[in-house]
Design a protein that fits this description.
Blueprint: E1 6-11, H1 21-31, E2 36-40, H2 50-56, E3 59-64, H3 67-70, E4 78-81, E5 97-103, H4 112-122, E6 123-134, H5 139-146, H6 149-159, H7 183-192, E7 194-203, H8 212-227, E8 236-243
Parallel strand pairs: 1-7, 2-3, 2-5, 3-4, 5-6
Antiparallel strand pairs: 6-8, 7-8
């Protein structure tokens, strides 16, 4: 499968990385008989609810590099305080998990090579790694990368405000290896020691919703790109990896 990974391009309404992610991960856990899960950057907002963790009978570890974020989460979850972009994995976590995943955290990885190497260490043999993330070079995310944080915060509040800034803070974006399914990205993940089961690029985004004319142009552009895909112009991506 690493020689011929499933590469597809879709419209953003099919992207599972935001509101659809809990159901997507639940289905994946059941289908693949997952027993142990590690969520990168979950912080205050684990994807799977505590009730569902109990019902599925799985162990679920939430990770963040900021203890204050983890303290906002339900204490039922196991906690891992570490920066996977920098820290080495302690022996107690090596080959512990059937699934390691991230939800809209990929843009915050400042050393993607080190992070994905650490994920490989966390995984059991044949374990899975799933990442849903925003990508360059979609215009809103390119701006997010280039402008100072305080300007980005104000722009976000203007065009796409969040309901709960305490529970859903904005964090610095780096976009290191946060791209659609280009040949560069495929080679990167294979070189890290993964099989690529699926890699999907998504076109379109919600950041122009307050501006109807611009939004209609964005929708037309996105639908054209689905038929004539350019990997470097995706807005989001989903990748499903497996440890060799």
């Amino acid at each position: 499968m690493s020689k011929n990974p499933s590469i597809t391009f879709k419209y953003v309404n099919e992207f599972p990385g935001t509101l659809k992610m809990p159901h997507f991960i639940e289905e994946f856990i059941i289908k693949n008989n997952i027993k142990s899960v590690f969520e990168i950057g979950a912080g205050a907002n684990p994807t799977i609810s505590s009730d569902l963790v109990n019902r599925l009978g799985i162990s679920y570890t939430v990770n963040d590099m900021v203890i204050e974020e983890l303290e906002k989460a339900n204490p039922i979850y196991d906690r891992n305080i570490s920066d996977l972009c920098r820290d080495d994995i302690s022996d107690e976590f090596v080959k512990t998990y059937d699934l390691v995943f991230s939800r809209m955290a990929g843009e915050h990885f400042y050393n993607a090579r080190n992070l994905h190497a650490n994920v490989l260490k966390l995984l059991n043999n044949k374990g899975y790694s799933i990442h849903c993330f925003s990508t360059l070079y979609a215009f809103p995310f390119l701006i997010n990368k280039l402008v100072p944080d305080w300007i980005g915060e104000r722009l976000l509040a203007l065009i796409h405000p969040r309901e709960n800034y305490y529970q859903h803070g904005k964090f610095k974006a780096y976009y290191d290896m946060a791209l659609g399914p280009s040949s560069k990205m495929i080679k990167f993940f294979v070189s890290q020691g993964y099989i690529i089961n699926e890699y999907v690029g998504y076109y379109g985004h919600p950041y122009y919703d307050r501006f109807p004319l611009i939004r209609s142009l964005e929708v037309r552009k996105a639908k054209w790109l689905i038929k004539h895909p350019v990997p470097l112009l995706t807005s989001y991506a989903l990748i499903i990896l497996q440890k060799v």
